[in-house]
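Open question from group meeting: does this chain pack into something compact, or does most of it stay loose? Before anyone orders reagents, we agreed to write out a predicted structure and look at it together. Recording both the input and the output here so the notebook holds the full record.
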Amino acid sequence: MKNIVKIDSNNIYQSFMDNFGINKGVVEEYIYSNLRELLCVDSVKEINVQKFINYIISKSSDSIKSVEDIYIDKITISHLTTRKNKKELENNPIRNLFNVLTESTTLQKHFDKHNIIFKKYKGILRMYNDGILVDFSDYYNKSNGPTARMISRRFEGNSFYGPDKCVNGFLFNKELKSNGNVRHIQYYPEILENIARVIKKNELINDWQYQNKTFKVTFWVDVNNLTFDNNKYLNYKRKIFLIYRYLLYFLIKDMYSNWDGHDNPIIRLKDGIDVSRKDIYLIEEIKERI
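C-alpha cells returned:
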C-alpha cells in the first residue's frame, strides 16, 4: 500500500527526507549537475520534470519503486488575511467567500454593523445595503464600473466563470506580502474595499486596518481539491508533475537568492470547500506591512 506523501512547500528538503529518504545534499547534487540546463529555462513549464522524478526515484529508499510512489497526496499552501488576533484564526476555519459573508464571522458582523447583509440565493450571493437589494450593474457605467463588474462576477458569475466560492492562496509563503495580487490584503479584505469603493461607504474600511492584524497562514490541502489559477483543467498526474516543477524551480531561485514573490503560483481550492482548523499548519503575524 502506498504511503501518504505530504510535502511542506516551505520546507522542501525536509519533506523529501521524510517522504523519500533523500537528504538535502542529494537534491542539491541534481541541481548542480543540471545547473546550466535549469538556469536556461524561461518558464517553469520548460523544466524536464520526468528527469527530476526519475532521479528522485533512483535515490529514494527501497519503498519507492515507481512514479506512483512519489505522487503527492497533500501539500501546503499559504494565504494572507487580516484578523483581530491569532486566536481567531486558531479557533475558526478559513471560509470561502460565500460562507465568510453569510455565516457568523468577524467580517459578516462588521458588514452588519454598517447595515449590509448578504444572502445566498439559488447559487449566487445577494447583498442588501440598508435593507435594499443592491444591483451592481447599476454601477457599471460609473467611475468604479470595473470594480462593480468584479463584485458581480464574484457574487453571480458570468458567461465565462461561475461565482467565487473558493479559498485561494499561494504555493509558497516566502515573500508572500510582496506579491502584487495580495499586497492590499495586508490592510483589509479585498471584497470589503471593493464594496466600500463602489457604494461609497468609506467607513467600512476606515477602522478595519487599525482594529485587525495581518497574518500569513499556511495550511494542508489535498492535491485532488486544488487547481492552479492558470491551469484549471489539469488531471491529477499533470498537477503532480507541475507541483514538482515548481518545487525544483523554487529551490533553484532560492539557492541564488533570486526568488521573486511574483513567481509564486496562485492555488485555488474547489468551490464550496473551507479550510478546517485541523488543517491549519502555521500562523505568522506580519508586523511590518508594505
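Observations to bring back to the group:
DSSP finds twelve helices and ten strands in the chain.
The radius of gyration is 21 Å.
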